[in-house]
Structures are given as structure tokens and as C-alpha cells.
């Protein structure tokens, strides 16, 4: 009497289903391993609806600030992005760097949050 393995005894359709399940399981395990590796690598995740920018002077230390994505289209923030482009160029490595002092940047964020664009010129420029 010939021995038949469990895999041989299933029809080819069932074998494909089993193979498909194993592939999905392997992909999910790979994604899980990649996520754990990313979380343990020191990179910080950014919450949905926000983006990270780095604020500071070229010579000094930069501080990472999370900004709501909706702020990116505001004229005040667009001015900061234009200033960043003039200072660092359009293509550079790393995240978006805003060339100003942190207190100045926080003042801009407060102004945007209030929905105003007029007090911009009244904010003192802090290096």
C-alpha cells in the first residue's frame, strides 16, 4: 500500500488556498518585523494629519515640531517655506527645515491657529 501525504491528497485548488494563506501570513509577519524594527530604530512616527518640520538656525540646533497639514497652505507658512527654499535650496537631505528661532515659529503657529494673517509683521524676529 502506497503512503499518500496530506499535501498530495488535497486537490490543487485546496493546495493553492493553503499556499495563499501561508503567503499572506508570511507577508504580515514581515510587516510586523519591519514595523518593530522601525519603532526600535529611533525614528519617531508622525500622527495622521500632521507633518514634522525642523525649526532653527543654520548654525544652531534644530527642534522637531509637529505641524497640522492644514497649516501648510496658509500664506504665513508659505512665506516660511519660501524662506527655507532661499536658505537651503529646494533639494536637500532630511526633513523640511525652517530657518528661524523656535519662539518666532511658535508665534506664527499661534497666529495661524487664531485664523489671522495680519499680525505677522508685529512678531519679533528671534534668531
Structure characterization notes:
The longest helix is centred in the N-terminal third of the chain and has 29 residues, at 12-40. The chain is an alpha+beta fold and 127 residues long. It has four helices and three strands, in the order ααββαβα. The model has no long low-confidence stretch (mean pLDDT 75). It is elongated.
* Fraction of residues in helix: 40-55%
Question: In whole angstroms, how far apart are the ends?
Answer: 87 Å
Shape: elongated
Category by helix and strand content: alpha+beta
Which spans have pLDDT < 50 for at least 5 consecutive residues?
none
* Relative strand content: 5-15%
Total number of β-strand segments?
3
Order of helices and strands: HHEEHEH
Main sheet: strands, sense, barrel: 3 strands, mixed
Q: What are the SSEs and their pairings?
A:
Layout: H1 6-9, H2 12-40, E1 50-55, E2 63-68, H3 75-88, E3 96-98, H4 102-114
Parallel strand pairs: 1-3
Antiparallel strand pairs: 1-2
Protein traits:
three-stranded mixed sheet; alpha+beta; 3 strands; 127 residues
Quick gist of this model?
The protein is of the alpha+beta class and 127 residues long. It has helices at residues 6-9, 12-40, 75-88, 102-114; strands at residues 50-55, 63-68, 96-98. The protein contains four helices and three strands, in the order H-H-E-E-H-E-H.
Amino acid at each position: 500500500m502506497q503512503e499518500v501525504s496530506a499535501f498530495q491528497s488535497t486537490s490543487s485548488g485546496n493546495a493553492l488556498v493553503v499556499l495563499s494563506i501561508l503567503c499572506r501570513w508570511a507577508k504580515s509577519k514581515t510587516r510586523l518585523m519591519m514595523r518593530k524594527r522601525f519603532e526600535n530604530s529611533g525614528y519617531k512616527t508622525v500622527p495622521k494629519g500632521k507633518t514634522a518640520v525642523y525649526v532653527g538656525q543654520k548654525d544652531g540646533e534644530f527642534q522637531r515640531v509637529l505641524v497640522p497639514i492644514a497649516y501648510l497652505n496658509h500664506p504665513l507658512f508659505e512665506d516660511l517655506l519660501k524662506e527655507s527654499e532661499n536658505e537651503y535650496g529646494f533639494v536637500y537631505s532630511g526633513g523640511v527645515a525652517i530657518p528661524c528661532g523656535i519662539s518666532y515659529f511658535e508665534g506664527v503657529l499661534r497666529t495661524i491657529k487664531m485664523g489671522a494673517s495680519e499680525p505677522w509683521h508685529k512678531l519679533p524676529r528671534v534668531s
